[in-house]
Amino acid sequence: MSCSKRYISTPIYYVNDRPHIGHVYTTTICDVWARFQRLLGHDVFFLTGTDEHGQKVEQSAEARGVTPQALADENSAEFRRIMGMFDLTNDEFIRTTDPRHEQQVQALVKQLMDSGDVYLGTFEGWYDAGQEEYYTETKAREVNHVSPISGKPLERATEENYYFKLSAYQDRLERMFEEHPGIVRPDARRNEVLGRLREGLQDVPISRTNFAWGIGVPGASEHVIYVWIDALFNYITALGAAEPGSEWHEDRFGYWPASMQVIGKEILWFHAVIWPALLMALKLPLPACVYAHSFWISEGQKMSKSLGNFIDLEQLQSYMEAYGSDALRYFLATQGPLGATDADFSRSQFHETYTTDLVNTLGNCASRTSAMIGKYCDGVCPEDTGECAGGGVEWEAFTSEQVEASISSMDRFDLSGSIAAAMTIVRQVDAFINDTEPFKLAKDPDASGKVASILYRCAEAIRIASCLLEATLPDRIHQLRESWHLGSPSGELRTECAWGRLEAGTPIDKVALFPRVETS
Ligand code: MSP
Question: Measured over all CA atoms, what is the biggest interatomic distance in the chain, rounded to whole angstroms?
Fold first, then answer.
């Protein structure tokens, strides 16, 4: 892939929910990807934000005796605070109550009305007045046309709504999946959507009249635009899509189409079907990939309010305090539910992953190598004399293979695959030290050339692995860069990972990257 623009987005989060592991997870994995693309030299735009309209927000605000805007301001600030707390490097934090977003949503809906993709239609159905809810014909028959909640008869009611002509996009959407199978990933999720798509599409109402907290339909302000339509548009309003000539448009619209739109599996339909259809209607290109991850569960159980077992910010903070923020990032990126199955967040697995991979492998290898360079080479990087005995590793070819594997896994959003390739280098260094035993050779004055070569190769391989791990472990790799006087990342990851860039004579100070943590 050539160096160019990359755009990654998270879902925008509802302000009527407290931030929890789900929000931190999605944003963190996007952050790892965004940082990695920046290290590769790409020009990255990383977007996250909050979804602030809709009936639920209106109701929560009413229950608390505050205005919906006040509730949105308070909770959006909380989401924004976590971006700082977890050192997330989003380039923009969009709020759907931002007037720039609201005006653009109206302009986009107007465009759809003008093209005939949005029309005013009448809906007739069985209405439960107490619940303010329509029942489908089947459900109404099931309950004998009586509300199971209030006991009152369902009413035959009609309602005028604006509709999006989703049904007109059936063929184009099916073709999209045939021609660009990678547009929805993982594969299992794409097949799920395709199955449902083949059952046939109906037009979708995109306006509501039973509450007020939303963006008015242009020219019909008694209707508010359905919160999902308002929310989906954030991905392009943040780029100034409907503000031609503006600075946002000039600076940002070039990032569209998105490279990666990361979401949770529960909001797949909106992103894999309705969103592409809206883009087709607006004659805009489609994102390269919508990636739907699965869910974290907690200690083997689904997280729910009633069980009170949500992994909340306080818990995540306590992990960060005990293990460091990089440890949390590493756990989320390597053990998370990126595939089609859910993943368990358990204290014991967190501890084990930290200890095995970060303390015993990466930390130990860097500390062993720097300690030996301290002891046998006066703390400066030795020269590779070429006199290396044993090991049988073709370091240049081996590391370059792992570098390519790490980069291509990241391109596919396979974070754990990318990290695993870097860790393969580290494990190889460990095996090489055990094999060649520089600590024994060092006792023989004639073997000093061999010791130098071995230690150069260890340090150089660790340096290359660390470049690949920097997006996941920014804090500790920064520490390693300082201790080993490696300078700042250049934005040329491939060049930086070329074998032999570590210069003999570079001071290599001793490092202890990951302290052992005792469990209570
Ligand atoms: N506002 C909508 C999205 C609109 S995007 C145009 C929404 N918001 S949300 O606050 O409910 O956030 C949902 C997202 O949080 C999920 O898609 C997922 O990214 C994340 N998670 C919520 N719970 C989760 C888990 N238990 N595990 C992992 N991530 C989950 O839906």
Answer: 97
DSSP β-bridge partners for residue 447: none
* pLDDT grade for 520, boundaries at 50, 70 and 90: low
Secondary structure class of 345 (helix, strand, coil): strand
Q: 301 CB contacts (<8 Å, ≥6 apart)? A: 307, 309
Residues with CB under 6 A from ligand 1: 11-14, 17, 22-23, 25-26, 51, 231-232, 234, 263-264, 267, 295-296, 303
The torsion angles phi and psi of 135, rounded to 5 degrees, stand at -105, 145
Model confidence at 129, in pLDDT bands (50, 70, 90)?
confident
More confident residue, 132 or 295: 295
d(CA 227, CA 14): 10
* Residues 6+ away with beta carbon under 8 Å from 509: 370, 374, 379, 483, 484, 485
- For 405-452, how does the pLDDT look when each residue is reduced to its tens digit (9 = 90+)? 999 999 999 999 999 999 999 999 999 999 999 999 999 999 999 999
Answer yes or no: are the C-beta atoms of 330 and 517 closer than 8 Å: no
> Pairing state of beta strands 184-185 and 290-293?
parallel
> Is the link from the previous residue into 257 a cis peptide, with omega within 30 of 0?
yes
- How high is the mean pLDDT of the chain? 95
Three-state secondary structure of 287-299: CCCEEEECCEEEC
Least confident span in 157-161, 162-166, 259-263, 323-327: 157-161
CA gyration radius, the chain: 27
The CATH number of domain 346-496 is 1.10.730.10: yes
Amino acid at 334: T
Contact 75, 15 (CB under 8 A): yes
Q: Tell which one of 20, 50, 51 to mutate to probe ligand 1, the residue whose CB is within 8 A of the most ligand atoms.
A: 51
Distances in Å between the Cα of 68 and the Cα atoms of 51, 63, 160, 312, 429 are: 12, 10, 25, 24, 57
Best residue for ligand 1 mutational test, from 8, 9, 10, 14 (most atoms within 8 Å of Cβ): 14
Q: Separation of 23 CA from ligand 1 center, angstroms?
A: 6
Residue nearest to atom 20 of ligand 1 (CA): 22
Judge if pTM exceeds 0.85: yes
pLDDT over threshold 80, residue 1: no
Determine the pLDDT at residue 389.
61
Pocket-testing residue among 9, 25, 48, 268, ligand 1, by greatest number of atoms within 8 A of Cβ: 25
How does pLDDT run across 25-55, given as a tens digit for each residue? Answer: 999 999 999 999 999 999 999 999 999 999 9
